[in-house]
Amino acid sequence: MTFDNAHRYDVTLDWNEADCGTLTAADRMPIVVGPPPDFGGKDTWWSPEHMLLAAASSCLMATFLSIARREKLVIGAYHAVAHATVEKTSSGLVFSSIVINLRLKTEAHEATRAASVMEKAKRHCIVGNALKPAIEVRLDVTAS
After folding, report:
1. E-state strands within 49-123
2. pTM of the prediction?
3. pLDDT, tens digit, for every residue of 61-82?
4. How do the residues of the chain divide into helix, strand and coil, expressed in percent and rounded to 5?
């Protein structure tokens, strides 16, 4: 995949007096964001920690599906659960690990190829490539 030029993305964040904010972007539904309960926020808000996991997980899915489509790999189901650990270090709080547990369903004879496509997707995921801790993908491919 090649790009003729750069792609630009814009997001607006407006704070409100409830110590949360609203993220908006053109033609998209707003998202209420704020700190997680661990840092004085509410569990109904999308926290930066949840947003980072959502970005990593959805980027991996989009990259995988794009490659699978190009390679004509038929996927029957895709289910991912992402986990992150934040730890206090000498340099402050950091994401020390990100793990995506992923369950794919495909034809029995395509299981090995599905795993290969996932490895390729992991290498090409732009969000995963931007993160300090490498994303660990635990893949379970089942036949349909």
Report:
1. 75-89, 92-106
2. 0.89
3. 999 999 999 999 999 999 999 9
4. 35, 35, 30
Could you tell me how far CA 86 lies from the centroid of its own chain? 16
Q: In what order do the strands lie in the sheet with 135-143?
A: 75-89, 92-106, 135-143
Summarised one tens digit per residue, pLDDT across range 98-141 is 999 999 999 999 999 999 999 999 999 999 999 988 899 999 99
Q: What is the mean pLDDT of residues 25-34?
A: 96
β-strands 92-106, 75-89: how paired? antiparallel
Please give the Cα distance from 99 to 143 (Å, whole number).
23
6-18: per-residue pLDDT in tens? 889 999 999 988 8
118 phi and psi, to 5 degrees? -65, -40
The rounded distance, in Å, linking the Cα atoms of 19 and 93 is 21
How far is 107 from 76, CA to CA, in rounded Å? Answer: 8
Contact (Cβ atoms closer than 8 angstroms) between residue 85 and residue 44 = no
- Produce one character per residue of 38-72: b if its CB has 16 or more CB atoms within 10 Å, e if not: eeebeeebbbebeebbebbbebbbebbeebbeeee
90: helix, coil or strand? coil
